[in-house]
Amino acid sequence: MHWELPRDGWAKLSVDGTFKLKEGYCVAGSVIRGDGGLFVAAGVWKFQGVASVKQVELLAIREGMQLSSR
């Protein structure tokens, strides 16, 4: 799998996260790139009490969407 540019006039949100079960927290990150592949915005967040990797990914998407609306 490789990253592709978004279509003209669009932006792309990429997310990732890590889950530390024993420590009881996760870290999620998001990057937004514009149609030329140029950096638009990014963020990293730490959350407590997360139950799964899927939840981490969903939190990264949520926070990235909020970041895109700023």
Automatic annotation (TrEMBL):
GO molecular function terms attached to this record: nucleic acid binding; RNA-DNA hybrid ribonuclease activity
Coiled-coil portions: none
Pfam families the record matches: RVT_3
InterPro entries per UniProt: RNase_H-like, RNaseH-like_sf, RNaseH_domain
Domain RNase H type-1: 15-67
Protein name as catalogued: RNase H type-1 domain-containing protein
Organism from which the protein derives: Malus baccata (Siberian crab apple)
Taxonomic lineage of the native organism: Eukaryota, Viridiplantae, Streptophyta, Embryophyta, Tracheophyta
